[in-house]
Structure to design on (81 residues):
């Protein structure tokens, strides 16, 4: 289960199951209404493994300078730099 403390963040797919010894990717969609920078967090909750907290620094930028795709990879429980 994925949750966020920011109402402008959505996930695709909204829910999923990852089988043992496999990988899975999901998309974090951030669509702010204002140009601003804010701090937020995503929590990945697993009944078997516990909770994993990922802090985010989000930047809303003008549509003319926005990048189309940002891809991040991280092992479960590790930090993204």
């Amino acid at each position: 289960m994925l949750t966020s403390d920011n109402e402008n963040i959505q996930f695709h797919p909204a829910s999923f199951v990852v089988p043992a010894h496999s990988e899975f990717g999901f998309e974090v969609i951030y669509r702010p209404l204002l140009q601003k920078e804010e701090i937020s967090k995503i929590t990945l909750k697993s009944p078997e493994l516990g909770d994993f907290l990922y802090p985010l620094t989000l930047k809303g930028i003008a549509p003319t300078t926005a990048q189309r795709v940002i891809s991040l990879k991280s092992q479960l429980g590790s930090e993204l730099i």
In short: The chain has one domain: 2-65. Strands lie at 2-4, 9-12, 27-30, 37-46, 50-59. Residues 25 and 63 are 26 Å apart (CA to CA). The radius of gyration is 14 Å.
